[in-house]
Design goal:
By secondary structure, the chain is mainly α. It has a two-stranded antiparallel ribbon. The longest helix has 32 residues. The chain starts with a helix and ends with a helix.
Length: 123
């Protein structure tokens, strides 16, 4: 699970160049953010999904990997990259960016709380 979360977050953060919507974050911070979200989501999926798929050392891994891929696609859909990151922003664009960050921060914490609750309920 940890390995899959690390691989998916690295591919998304470094391979595809995804950055945290704050725009000021480095690649390492973006990968860490993705790793935490994916790890908790995959852990919740592992505790709730029935065990199916190929088994490696007694652990079925395909369901967890598919859950991680799904969450990765949702993250990519919710936070499309801002290709205009390097140009100067007007005041209106700065306000819009601040509002976007506030919404994305709330989304992140609601998502983390929901996944942790799912993990606790699944145990």
């Amino acid at each position: 699970m940890i390995l899959f979360a690390l691989i998916l977050s690295s591919i998304l953060g470094w391979g595809l160049g995804w950055r945290h919507p704050a725009g000021t974050r480095t690649a390492a911070a973006s990968v860490l953010f993705l790793f935490v979200v994916l790890l908790i989501a995959m852990w919740a999926a592992a505790s709730w999904m029935p065990e199916w798929g190929p088994v490696y050392q007694g652990t079925p891994w395909l369901g967890v990997l598919l859950a991680g891929l799904f969450v990765t696609l949702v993250i990519m859909a919710v936070s499309a990259p801002d290709w205009r990151r390097y140009r100067r922003r007007t005041e209106l664009e700065a306000e819009t960016a601040a509002e976007t960050m506030a919404v994305f921060g709330c989304f992140f914490w609601i998502l983390i709380i929901a996944f942790v609750a799912m993990v606790i309920a699944g145990l």
